[in-house]
Amino acid sequence: MIIQRQILAVIFLLLVNTCIATTIADTTRIKAHLVTLTKTQAFRNFKNIDQLSITADYIKSVFSQYADSVYFQEYMVEGQVYKNVICSYGIENSKRIIVGAHYDVCGNQEGADDNASGIAGLLELSRLLKGQKLSYRIDLVAYTLEEPPYFQTENMGSYIHAKSLSDNKVDVVGMVCLEMIGYFKDHKKSQAYPIGVLSLFYGNKGNYITLVRKFGAGQFARKFSRKYKSTKAVRTKRFKGPASLQGVDFSDHLNYWGFGFSALMITDTAFYRNPNYHQSSDILETLDIYRLSKVINGVFKTLTS
Predict the structure, then answer these.
(1) Angle of CA points 242, 243, 244, to nearest 5°
(2) Domain residue spans in the chain?
(3) What's the mean pLDDT in 292-305?
(4) Which of 140, 128, 105, 147 is nearest to 284 (CA)?
(5) CA-CA distances (angstroms) from residue 176 to 100, 110, 147, 262, 274?
């Protein structure tokens, strides 16, 4: 009888640990995604259409393992077809939350932090969301053409997506942008700011993730930011400022602001911390995959709490 109880206790613990493991980001999976995204035959820039398509196919193949619905959103730019990749969870719900990241790069570089880190996070989040009971529909969107020469133009994949939501009068609760989430440093003076005095409030070590929103970004951005920090998944700091401040609107969330949606950006602060920004040195080996996984845990917990 005692042995039976011990066996049952072991089985119970295994089941509990299995359930916990499925709701925690897996660094091995994240690294595998990063390798596939960065170690490619060609660079993921707007000129290499075939490579962008290969990357889009990979993203779709991963999404298809976990999501309720997966599809491409195709559009034309200068005679070429570009693709956003979209997957959905909780499609029975009318209100919708968007979580997005871009998969293209600026020029000839791997683009590990910018923005394979965000895409790898999105892919791992797709696994974590499988089977979850959700109060909202959640769409994960991998965008193309975020980088120059199309940044801040109507050819950005996120502009195409945000416009489609607005045109179809979709009830969007809010949007979360994953923009460079894998670079962390613990030494002093590893973090800079658009205004030097901010270091007095935020510190000079690049050892945290930042949730960035503009003044008047809306209720969702405010609530998400607060809930994310309360998860304590990773060291987190929140920043609110004018959209005109350099860096505040430097990613796909800007297009959701443009259509009146509440949105925020999760970022390691890009060029304010990472010296490899838009350089050939932005490679996989510079990333902190452990802390990247913690960032995604925070997103998952916030979306499902």
Answers:
(1) 85
(2) 2-304
(3) 97
(4) 105
(5) 6, 24, 18, 9, 21
Whether the link from the prior residue into 149 is cis, omega within 30° of 0, is: yes
For domain 2-304, the CATH architecture is 3-Layer(aba) Sandwich (3.40)
Residue 139 in contact with residue 98, Cβ under 8 Å? Answer: yes
User: What's the pLDDT score for residue 11?
Assistant: 37
Instruction: Say what the pTM is.
Output: 0.92
Q: Measured in whole angstroms, how far is the alpha carbon of residue 262 from the centre of its chain?
A: 16
Closest CA to 112 of 291, 295, 274, 266: 274
Determine the average pLDDT of the residues in 98-110.
98
252-272 pLDDT, tens digit per residue, is 999 999 999 999 999 999 999
Alpha-carbon span 60 to 74, nearest angstrom:
13
Q: Identify which of 259, 294, 291, 234 has the alpha carbon closest to the alpha carbon of residue 98.
A: 259
Which residues, in sequence order, are CB contacts of 101 under 8 Å at separation 6+?
Answer: 115, 118, 119, 121, 122, 141, 142, 143, 177, 178, 179, 252
57-101 residue pLDDT tens: 999 999 999 999 999 999 999 999 999 999 999 999 999 999 999
